[in-house]
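Weekly structure sync, notes
Attendees: PL (lead), two postdocs, one rotation student
Agenda item 3: pending single-chain targets
PL asked that the sequence for the first pending target be pasted directly into the notes so everyone works from the same version. It is reproduced below exactly as submitted, 124 residues in total.
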Amino acid sequence: QAQLVESGGGLVQPGGSLRLSCAASGFTLDYNSIGWFRQAPGKEREGVSYINSNGGVTYYGASVKGRFTISRDNAKNTVYLQMNSLKPEDTAVYYCATDYKGESPLRPQSYGNWGQGTQVTVSS
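Predicted structure, written out during the meeting:
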């Protein structure tokens, strides 16, 4: 059983911060790239960020660059997404994914193993 579990979502005011966690069980993240994605109701799943197995390569979607930071702690088998300066447009269910197929790191179709998601709501 290889599972990803997201946590850390919640309600935050515009300009606030949240840190999301993606914890792996049943396998080690040491050799796995991880992508963060988000999906709002009625919208397609959007690539947010990517980190490779050792953390040396990261990518960000244009809408979050400069505000979000992806990191990983392989000893804890966890990947994080630090979200700062949050905007209402960031409201979505956030998912982490692995089983990266080596295509486009911010394309949902490039991943085969997904968590269940955590809700992030940015509202005043």
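Discussion points:
- Residues 38 and 44 are 9 Å apart (CA to CA).
- The mean pLDDT is 95.
Action: rotation student to compare against the earlier draft before next sync.
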